[in-house]
Amino acid sequence: TLMGERSFQLLAGPQTGCREITQFIGLIPPGRAPLHAHPHEECVYVLSGRGRLWMGEEVAGELSPGSAVFIPIGLRHSLENTDTREVLKVLGVFSPAGSPAAKLPSE
Fold this sequence. Notes:
By secondary structure, the protein is mainly β. The protein is built from no helices and 9 strands. It has strands spanning 7-12, 22-28, 31-32, 41-48, 51-55, 58-63, 68-71, 77-81, 88-95. A hairpin with a 2-residue loop joins strand 5 and strand 6 (58-63). The two termini are 21 Å apart.
């Protein structure tokens, strides 16, 4: 099931004088985000909630508080919130600095 919009709170990045990374909190409602890829490396740490990491069309792993994942530049991926009641809350970091909304064109 595809979900509604994710939301992001930027913590550090170009807007705060940080030139090398962007750090953000991501809130992911129940459901699966569309597959997408970014023009930067991404590290995600799960703060609360449960879900799945998709790499392409395959489930790459289950997510729970304390899970950490690395997503290389250009790799199509998606996070899925498998809980119908709780938001999946993640701490994310991009390098080089960039917007969580920045995506590479779909294939």
